[in-house]
Structure formats: C-alpha cells, structure tokens
Fold this protein.
Amino acid sequence: MTVVGPFGLSVRDQALEADVQNGLAAVEAGLLDATKSEVPFITEAAQHLVRAGGKRFRPLLAMLAAQFGDPYAPGVVPSAVVVELTHLATLYHDDVMDEADVRRGVASANARWGNSLAVLTGDFLFARASHILADLGPEAVRIQAEAFERLVTGQILETAGPRDGRDPVDHYLDVIGGKTGSLIAVSGRFGAMMSGADEGITDILTQYGERLGVAFQLADDVLDIASDSHESGKTPGTDLREGIPTLPVLRLRERAAAHGRAEDLELVELLEGDLTDDARHAEALGRLRVHPALEQARRDTVRYAEEARALLAPLPKCYARAALEELCDAVVHRAG
C-alpha cells in the first residue's frame, strides 16, 4: 500500500500507483508550462501558488476516473491541468475577497503584490485554462463554462446571503455545491470522459465528484476552526474574522435559536461582533473549537462523504474504485 500525492491517498496496486503518479507528474509539468509568460514578473506571480504546492485533489480525482477508460488517452492530463488552473485562479480571487494573508503556508498573492495584481493574475490563469480547453473540443468547453457559471453563482449567493425565509444551512450547502462541488464534479467527469469511459460511468463519477466536493469543503470548514496554520497552510479562523458564516457557525446559530441556551447565545453574539480584534478573535475561535456545533459539522462532512461512496456501488470492482472509496475516508479524516 503506497501513499500517492500530497493528498495522501493509499493505493494498493502497483500499476494503478504508477499511472496515478505519472499522471500527477505530467499535470505538475503542465501547470508550470501553462503559467509561463514572456514577462518574468507574470511568471513569478502566476507560479506563486503552483510552487507553494497543494493537495492536487482535482487532478487526482481525474486520474482515478480515467482508470475506467484509457488512462493514457491524450485529453486526460490537459483536462486535469484545466481544472487545477481554474481552481488556482479562484484562490487568487478568494484571497482578495477574504483579505487573507496566508495561502498554502506562504504569503498570499494579494498580501505580497496587492489586490489588483492578485485579481489580474487570477484572470491570467483563467485565460491559460481556456486556451488549453479549446483544444479539448466544444463539449469540454461547454462543461467547463457551465461549471464556472455555477462556481460564480455560488460565490454571489454567498455574498448576498440567504433570501428571507430560506434555511441558512440549506442556502450554504447550495453555495458550496456551486463554489466547490461543481469543479470537483468536472474533475471526475473530465477524467472519465477524456478516457472514453461509458456514459453511465461518467455520470456516476460526476455525481460522486459533486458529493465529495461538498464533503471536501465541509472538511475545510472544520479544519479552519479546529487546526493551526501549520496543519491547514492558511491562517485559522479567516472566515470568522471576515464574518463569513461557515457550517460550524451556522450549526451554532441553529442550536442557539432552537434551544436558547445562554452560552450559545453569548457565543453567537461574540461571533457577530468585531473579530478584527485579535483577542476577541482568539476567544471566539477557542470557544467554537470545543462547542458541539463543530462536532455536528463533522457529522455533516461524514454524511456527504458516505453519499459519495454509495454512488460508486454500480461501478465494476477494481483498484480504482477502491481508491475512490478511500478518497471518501481521506476527506473525512481531514475533518478529524
């Protein structure tokens, strides 16, 4: 059993391990090639997060999905590069919106070069992803465009907040289905589609990616509260400081509204106050870390991961399917 990639997936078959390792290495080379510019500064800024590393979760899923067809088909690696470039571009933009200082254990692009250059660098990555995508055919362009529309819609819905009468948790799950689930779903779809897998298998892997993507984001929500910066690679409690309600906070509010316990109401009031103050932020983070709402968010993460696993049942039993099942466990493990 060998650990593959920064995400730490264990693979039980040497041939599958070699395919995945070689695929991820080719994706890494493709990312560096796609982020080169004739202008040295653009290359430096565009490769800033590429060289900082990352889990490469989306390319990993694409490589595993490709095992249900021809994993060596020429479109597999470029399509994985497209989804990772798109993901990286959103990180540049997200860090500007969140005013984040740290990303993947290094200074964020906006902290290093300012908001304008960070936004423009994200745009540059989108352009490079589109250039690669154009060679993969009109169907791939349409799929990516639809996913990108969902991604942006999710971001807008997050910014706007739930409409009157809408359950905040349901609204939030819709948000992350768009912001995170859509692109991870495309990773599974591209890997299968580019490999020539059957349409039914491609549909299963698309739905699997969507559920797993939601679980992945929920695990990130938990990790943002529960971990330190060494574990997560970014400043803990960034969303708290910016007043962005992730699932642990929403579950806390839900409990406070349902039961009216004084300690819950007090913590809600603290979270809704000014958390730009370091002392108040540290107190809020510390109290939320030991609150039952965080454990409830962990259970939500497990539920989505198990839904993703159940979708795999119709697939033929093979090492690739076992790896996809283990990926569900790996996502849950991140949440503790």
